[in-house]
Amino acid sequence: MGPDEVYEELRGVELLGRAETVDDEDRKLELAYSVTERYQGPLDDAGRALLRERIAKHLAVRIEIEKVVSWDHRKLVRGDGVRDR
Fold it and tell me: Residue 69 carries which DSSP code?
């Protein structure tokens, strides 16, 4: 927990399953394109070239998710509307 966080505001997710490293350069590049485009939008040629340059220095891990556990302490409220501590 950081200095500005309080217990009642904590939330998160845990992914459980089998993980494998992806060694194939083409597959790593596919994953990099997919993740980048999901969060930053479509890539142009310059963006794809930059990823090709950088991907060799990174490890890719693929997770076959078997179980998802999440929590949101903001939802911890007593019956009278007061948050539990």
Answer: E
φ/ψ of residue 76, rounded to 5: -80, 90
Token code pair at residue 34: 């997919």
3-state class of 44 per DSSP?
coil
- 22 Cβ neighbours under 8 A, 6+ residues apart: 28, 31, 60, 61, 62
Residue-wise pLDDT tens digits, 14-35: 999 999 999 899 999 999 999 9
- Give every CB contact of residue 20 below 8 A, 6+ residues apart in sequence: 61, 62, 64
- From the list 69, 70, 66, 60, the residue with the least C-alpha distance to 35 is 60
CA–CA dist 8, 71 (Å, integer): 11
* pLDDT at site 57: 83
Structure tokens at 19: 């993980």
